[in-house]
Fold this sequence. Notes:
Blueprint: H1 6-14, H2 35-38, E1 41-43, E2 50-56, H3 62-78, H4 80-89, H5 112-119, E3 121-126, E4 129-130, E5 134-136, E6 142-143, H6 145-157, E7 160-165, H7 171-176, E8 182-188, H8 191-196, E9 202-213, E10 228-232, H9 236-243, E11 252-256, H10 259-268, E12 273-277, H11 278-298
Parallel strand pairs: 3-7, 3-8, 10-11, 10-12
Antiparallel strand pairs: 1-9, 2-8, 2-9, 4-5, 5-6, 9-12
Amino acid sequence: MKKWTKLLGVTLVFGMAAFALTGCGEKKPVDPQEPEKTAAFVVLEEDFGAENYAIGFRNGDIALGLEVQKQLDAMMEDGTAAEISNKWFGEDKMLKDVEYYEETEAAEDDNSLQNVLDKKTFVLGLDDSFPPMGFRDEENNIVGFDIDLATEVAKRMGVELVVQPIDWDAKEMELNSGKIDCIWNGMSVNDDRLAAMFIAKPYIGNRQIIIVPGDSDIKTIADLKDKVIGLQKGSSALDALNANEIAKDVKEVVEYPENVSAFMDLKAGRVDAFVVDEVVGKYIITNDAQTAEDGSAAK
Length: 299
């Protein structure tokens, strides 16, 4: 039985965690908690919606979903998940001791786990431009926090992880077609996704934020009136905007296939504000500031 009443409570408890993101490689990023002092972009202080990230499986693939969750729980217990979190966030952001959203037992005729074990591959679907959860590095390899978690889970299951980029706006169709075994890429939990997929537990908290240029006259959510908003198509950012009363007063909402394009249009002045997951948005502006700093130093 689906635990519908638990979703809002769990989200409010865990979704407000603040993310002190670090960069990758040898670059030392600016402080993402104070972007107004270190970068050309700022994050509005007002809350725009707390949420949790979780992994989505086909509704009937409960055995597979529970096995993946079992391995994640073991990784939290032995410290492996904390090590991965520290690598990407500088601290342990894993949600522990949280309740299951849905079923905790699989049906006897559920062969989803055995099918993955038999084919010896576990196919993960993702948007490959969603840093730091899953994205392409300078050598075009798909890396990220979720990729590291999933790689360790697959290793413990005795199968090979296969990372498959998908159209995020068509993620449910990609999953139900059988092309992928799960959606694991900073996917926010909401009631529609709980109905469309099997989701065991949340594993990390998040919230939606609004990013604007440092010299913008947008200081509050109310200032979005008559402004052009950029965000990813089919994302929880769109849900957050539509759930806010300001949605009826914005001038236009421009939807992009991925977040990087939305940010580039913010830089170019084609949109006035960028709504995005905090983990992604702060990563993007932190690394943008670092790139600008490195470029200035090289001159």
